[in-house]
Amino acid sequence: MVLVLPMAGCGVGSEQRTSAEPSELSYEQSTKLSAYSRTLIDFDPSRLRREFAERRLDKATAEDSPFMDAQSVENAWEDLRRTRAMDGALKDIDPLADRLLAPLGRLAAKAKDLRSYLTMRGYLTDDFARARKEAPEILADYDVIIAATDALAKTVETSRVKTEAVLIKRLQGEGRMADVYELQIAQQVRKVRELAGDGPTLEPAVLDEMDKLLTQLTPLLDKVRTARTEEARKAGEDAVLDNGVVASAESMIGALREYRRSRDADNLKELREAASNVLRATA
């Protein structure tokens, strides 16, 4: 699903163009905004920085086995670079993407070089001298990237909320309630994902807040199924009850309930991944 303002009879993620009102984004702009949203869902520089700092490469010795998640940095740079090059200028967002691309590209290059250094066991020849020298520089790069990512994410979110509000109103007017319910599911899931954070555990108070959100989320899942069935019946086709949104939301709910029982880190990881899947599908 893409936050595009569609023509009647077209799916929310349809590639059909529609004439936009002056206050609305064009098709190209909406598609680009969605791409920015998906890129940011998958990129968490604060977590990457913390994991890198915990390795303490600045104090490493040949007895250690250090690691840097170079792939996540490179993937984020590639995704953001492709998105920035898309048609549909976003005057409030594109400049912020440029501010992130520059330091992210530099870190991606450093990460690639460091990965080769570690893979080839270069630290066995210099007793981690290079790692100790580069670690503070990489942490400083992460600090710049975190600030730039936060600024970009805030502006993208503001634009996404405005676009989503216009889209929901349009879909309601067209009677396309299944699409409306899926966007409303994403709104609740986004709140759950924000509460989940990226820490190793969740406090009881946070779990209680999540449970409150589930009371709003669960009825929406039933509404989507009912609406999809009715749409298919009217169209004379077999019902397609889920495009991934409902299944991912259900997985998130199940993982949350299991985590509340077990406090198992794997359940918390499953919760976060399922929530991110919903947000990707509705971005």
Question: What does this protein structure show overall?
Answer:
By secondary structure, the chain is mainly α. It contains 10 helices and no strands. Helix 9 (245-262) runs antiparallel to helix 10. It is globular and about 70 Å long. It starts with 26 loop residues before the first helix and ends with a helix. It comes from Sphingomonas agrestis. This is DUF3829 domain-containing protein.
Give descriptors for this structure.
283 residues; DUF3829 domain-containing protein
Question: Which spans of ≥5 residues are poorly predicted at pLDDT below 50?
Answer: 5-23
Order of helices and strands: HHHHHHHHHH
**What do the pLDDT scores average to?**
85
Total helical segments: 10
Inertia-based shape: globular
Count up the domains: 2
**Strand count:** 0
CA-atom Rg in angstroms? 22 Å
Tell me the structural class. mainly alpha
Question: What share of residues are in beta strands?
Answer: under 5%
Q: Span between N and C termini?
A: 6 Å
Largest sheet: none
Reconstruct the topology from this structure.
Blueprint: H1 27-41, H2 45-55, H3 70-84, H4 94-119, H5 123-126, H6 129-173, H7 177-196, H8 204-235, H9 245-262, H10 265-282
In short, what is this structure?
The chain is built from ten helices and no strands. The chain has helices at residues 27-41, 45-55, 70-84, 94-119, 123-126, 129-173, 177-196, 204-235, 245-262, 265-282.
